[in-house]
Amino acid sequence: MSRLAILYGGSLPEYAVLNRPKYSRWLAGTIHLTDLPSTDLSKFDGLLIPEGLHHLRLQASSDQICKFLDQGGTVLIFGDQPLSWLPGLDWEFRPVMKPESGKLLIQSPDHSFHRHIGLEDILHFHGVFHPPAGVQTLLATPDGGSVLYIDRVSTRGTLLATSVDCSRHVGTMTNRISERFLDRLLPWVVEELLTPSTAGDK
């Protein structure tokens, strides 16, 4: 199984997610954000960075994470990204929106992501991205803002960026939709996104 690590900021919702067996079984390691600078990321295939972590601390570790990407690693980031701390990252604030009444559109419909996760599995999203040319957008707003995209052009690795929440609502047990999203996301990430044999459809 591919090795996926997750960054941990110490909040109670994060702790609750990490201690649920149906999620922890997909994770090969947990890295506290304060321990990130001294952690060897090369032993992992992917690094999941949930929403709500300290943005300045993430920015301070930008070089380390870019090195991981340039060595072929995969990084997944969630939620708002007010700092452009990774190559090609350009996030625009917008009021939180739900994927209803045509406010969120599926792009690249044949991508494996859509076989696992549908619009009904998304509670809401926080703003949009304006990614560089050549990336693959999977979810977008009608005006062309990217809500989830995969970037293999800015580095030698893979960056999945989305403004969808990953874990906060799951950890507080406040919404079944968010739980379903994470239930379906982690198996897809480990079994398909991080798996070399599916590189053409990651």
TrEMBL record:
Q: Source organism's superkingdom? A: Bacteria
Q: Check the record and name the InterPro entries matching this protein.
A: Class_I_gatase-like
Name assigned to this protein: Glutamine amidotransferase domain-containing protein
